[in-house]
Design brief:
The protein contains one helix and ten strands. The protein has about 160 residues and is mainly beta. The protein has one domain (about 25-145): Immunoglobulin-like (Sandwich), CATH 2.60.40. Strands 1, 2, 3, 4, 5, 6, 7, 8, 9 and 10 form a ten-stranded mixed β-sheet that branches. It is globular, with a radius of gyration of 19 Å. The structure holds copper (II) ion. Copper (II) ion (CU) binds near residues 88 and 110.
């Protein structure tokens, strides 16, 4: 292949990639906002994360996994109050119904982020990849913040 043909092939190939990714995106665009991770002392190896996940489409969409280069593992949890004891239940997935928003927040659904690969301080950012059931991946930046010390309900994530 000469240089011109190689160049044309590269253009053709990149257009093919572009149109196929536009196709898999479909019309379901989930928006994730206000993502943050709570700052923790350096000896704590599990951090909690929060965000708002909005599904503007007319179809239910399911969050099936979250990954990050900053953590060894990320799980979806829900804090539940049972006989005055707060415990956390791991969720295999999280459904966001049509035109609905799920708020991951202290005392409710949240992310558990395991074993940060470096100490995270207030003001740092981490990159989180949210994988949805339609194959769509939403990559966002989450800010590391100190918890609001006024609010004691945050103690158990
Ligand atoms: Cu948890």
């Amino acid at each position: 292949m000469n240089k011109v043909n190689l160049f044309l092939f590269a253009i053709f190939f990149s257009q093919m990639l572009f149109s196929s990714s536009a196709f898999t995106d479909g019309n379901v665009k989930v928006s994730i906002s206000d993502a943050w991770v709570s700052e923790a002392p350096t000896n704590v190896s599990v951090l909690a994360g929060y965000a708002n996940i909005h599904n503007p489409s007319n179809k239910l969409i399911t969050l099936i996994a979250i990954s990050s280069q900053n953590f060894s593992k990320i799980e979806i949890h829900r804090s539940v109050l049972n006989r005055e004891i707060i415990s956390m239940e791991k969720q295999e997935s999280l459904e966001i119904s049509a035109e609905n928003t799920i708020k991951l927040s202290p005392g409710d659904f949240h992310l558990m982020l395991f074993e940060p690969n470096k100490p995270l301080r207030s003001g740092d950012t981490v990159t989180l990849n949210f994988l949805f059931s339609d194959g769509h991946i939403e990559t966002i930046e989450a800010k590391v913040k100190r918890r609001d010390t006024e609010d004691h309900s945050h103690q158990n994530h």
